């Protein structure tokens, strides 16, 4: 039996009424994020839009970061499925260098689509790095670096490479520095080739 993927939010087994409340809250939050952007949505706004008390909101999600993480779950599940079991080059079956390039390109696309939501879900400094989703990304990158026979501190390099793929940095590059998405992908590919060589 295959183990579940590390999600942003744990799978919950709830009573029917609690599950309905959760679905209502998530639908309201999704609509507010689509209308105003993730950075501008408050817990008060979500509680009002979902017609629930703030206590209900905090019981379900813990805090604002938890709510934003819950909104990301389905997309995160699809992304992880892609690099663990999907078709090459993102998934198994391609050389490690090609897979690492594909991973970075898909991360950049992931941020392009939902960067504000990812940034809002990152939480206080260091929290993102301690999360199981970061651990899944890190483990994947370490495996690819190991398979490529990279001969240095692989754990350190994995963290450095993932640092280039944070929502905060990519959004800054896209919005403030006006770097086109295709240029970021090409730069990522160039970085990987410079580290691991070309075929």
Topology readout:
Elements: H1 16-36, H2 43-50, H3 54-61, H4 64-85, H5 96-121, H6 127-130, H7 132-147, H8 154-163, H9 167-176, H10 181-196
Helix pairs in contact: 1-2, 3-4, 4-5, 5-7, 5-9, 5-10, 7-8
Question: Would you mind describing this structure in some detail?
Answer:
The protein has helices at 16-36, 43-50, 54-61, 64-85, 96-121, 127-130, 132-147, 154-163, 167-176, 181-196. The protein has 2 domains: 13-62, Arc Repressor Mutant, subunit A (Orthogonal Bundle), CATH 1.10.10.60; 64-196, Tetracycline Repressor, domain 2. It is elongated. It is an all-alpha fold and 199 residues long.
Essential attributes:
199 residues, mainly alpha, Arc Repressor Mutant, subunit A, Tetracycline Repressor, domain 2, 2 domains, 71% helix, 0% strand
CATH top level of the largest domain is Mainly Alpha
Share of helix among residues? Answer: over 70%
Q: What form results from the Cα inertia axes?
A: elongated
H/E element order: HHHHHHHHHH
* CATH architecture heading of the largest domain: Orthogonal Bundle
Rounded to the nearest angstrom, the distance between the terminal CA atoms is 36 Å
Radius of gyration, CA atoms, in whole angstroms? 18 Å
The biggest sheet amounts to: none
Structural class: mainly alpha
Summarize the entry for a quick read.
The protein is 71% helix and 0% strand. By secondary structure, it is mainly alpha-helical. It folds into 2 domains: 13-62, Homeodomain-like (Arc Repressor Mutant, subunit A); 64-196, Tetracycline Repressor, domain 2, CATH 1.10.357.
């Amino acid at each position: 039996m295959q183990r579940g993927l590390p999600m942003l939010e744990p799978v919950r087994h709830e009573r029917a009424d609690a599950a309905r409340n959760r679905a209502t809250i998530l639908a309201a939050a999704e609509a507010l994020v689509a209308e105003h952007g993730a950075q501008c949505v408050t817990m008060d706004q979500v509680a009002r839009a979902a017609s629930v008390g703030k206590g209900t909101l905090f019981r379900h999600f813990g805090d604002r970061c938890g709510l934003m993480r819950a909104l990301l779950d389905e997309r995160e599940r699809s992304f992880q499925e892609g690099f663990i079991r999907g078709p090459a080059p993102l998934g198994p079956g391609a050389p490690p260098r090609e897979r690492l390039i594909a991973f970075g390109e898909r991360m950049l696309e992931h941020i392009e689509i939902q960067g504000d939501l990812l940034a809002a879900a990152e939480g206080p400094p260091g929290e993102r790095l301690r999360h199981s989703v970061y651990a899944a990304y890190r483990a994947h990158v370490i495996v690819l670096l190991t398979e490529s026979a990279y001969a240095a501190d692989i754990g350190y390099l994995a963290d450095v490479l993932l640092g280039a793929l944070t929502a905060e940095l990519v959004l800054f590059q896209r919005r403030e520095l006006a770097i086109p998405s295709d240029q970021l992908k090409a730069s990522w590919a160039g970085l990987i080739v410079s580290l691991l060589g070309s075929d």
